[in-house]
Amino acid sequence: MAAGYLTKQAVLLTARYLNDVNDSVAGGAVLALPSGVQAPPWSQTIPGDRICLDDASALALSDTTIGTLYGGIYQYTQAKTTTLAIALGGIAFWKQADVGTAYIVYGDAQPAAATPSFIAGIFINAITSGNYGWIQCAGVATVLFAAAITATTVGSLVTAKVSATGAENGATVTQETVASQIGVSIQTAAAATASQVAITRSPFGRL
């Protein structure tokens, strides 16, 4: 199921809104049964599952007190923190050791701050380290920009900022920026602020 771009039609949500999901166990603790009692069949969301939403569906699944979601592809992953706390709009990275083996994402740049190119997507809420939730890997996303950015112009290249936390707007095209590309800004960017970005990077399940 996790091999394709889209997941099964019926996705089990453990919260009313997609950007409220913060499961302590994969798929959420749905039920508890006495020892020895066989669990009934049911549809569980597992790490790697994806869903594709149009704008109306994404809005209906948005907790707007946290943020508004837009049409695109979302993926269920486990989130972990090493040094950098997971933040709304932050970039989610695969760790090199997990590529091809696990759906675990980190807020810390991977494989290194100088080459932040193992991009999985964008965090849509602040998932507790070790818990499971949804990230956005395609479509229009709300992305948190770094404390200092090169440009504010709409339509500029948006990348994971080299050797800094957050996204960069208007970076000069180099080998590093091409590898670290997220998409194109569709709002005027501002330092240390979240704004809309059209993700143009292919929505890899894993690299």
Summed up, what is this model?
Helices cover 5% and strands 27% of the residues. The chain has 207 residues and is mainly β. It has one domain (18-27, 44-199).
Protein described:
This protein is mainly beta. It has one domain. 5% of the residues lie in helices and 27% in strands. The chain has a five-stranded mixed β-barrel.
Work out the helix count.
2
Strand order of the largest sheet: 2-4-3-5-6
Overall pLDDT: 89
Helix content: under 10%
- The general outline is globular
The helix/strand class is mainly beta
Strand content: 25-35%
Order of helices and strands: EHEEEEEEEHEE
The total beta strand count reads 10
Largest sheet: 5 strands, mixed, barrel
- Unreliable spans: none
The total number of structural domains is 1
C-alpha Rg (nearest Å): 17 Å
The end-to-end span amounts to: 17 Å
Topology (elements, then pairings):
Elements: E1 50-53, H1 55-60, E2 72-80, E3 91-94, E4 104-106, E5 119-123, E6 132-144, E7 157-160, E8 167-169, H2 175-179, E9 181-185, E10 194-199
Parallel strand pairs: 2-4
Antiparallel strand pairs: 1-2, 2-6, 3-4, 3-5, 5-6, 6-10, 7-8, 7-9, 9-10
Comma- or semicolon-separated keywords:
mainly beta; globular; 5-stranded mixed β-barrel; single chain; 207 residues
